[in-house]
Amino acid sequence: MDSAPRARYGCAPDGARPAAAPPRGEPDMIVIAAALLGALTGGFKARNRKGNAADIAQYAAGFGIFFALIGLIVTVALDKILL
To answer: How many C-beta neighbours within 10 Å does residue 6 have?
Structure first.
């Protein structure tokens, strides 16, 4: 009865912790790159529409957040598919 609960939770019978998972690389770079690309896209779009500094900042922030969200979804999808 003593070893059954430990085995269920992934612990070894002697109480040792399981080995750490190997590093998987840097998937966060997709999110960062997407956020920067979105901010640049939004800034240029607002400037082309003759917006003032507040318009440019708002477009850059909005597009940056949107592109980062899309990058996060892509990162999770690639992580699930490839690993």
So the answer is: 14
Angle at 51 between CA 49 and CA 55, to 5 degrees: 120
Both structure tokens of 20: 């750490």
| pTM of the predicted protein model | 0.67
Cβ-Cβ contacts under 8 Å for 7 (sequence gap 6 or more): 13
Q: Fill in the DSSP letter of residue 71.
A: H
* pLDDT above 70: percentage of residues in the chain: 67
Cα torsion through 11, 16, 18, 19, rounded to 10:
180
Do 59 and 42 touch, CB atoms closer than 8 A? yes
The string of pLDDT tens digits covering residues 19-56 is 666 556 566 789 999 999 999 999 999 999 999 999 99
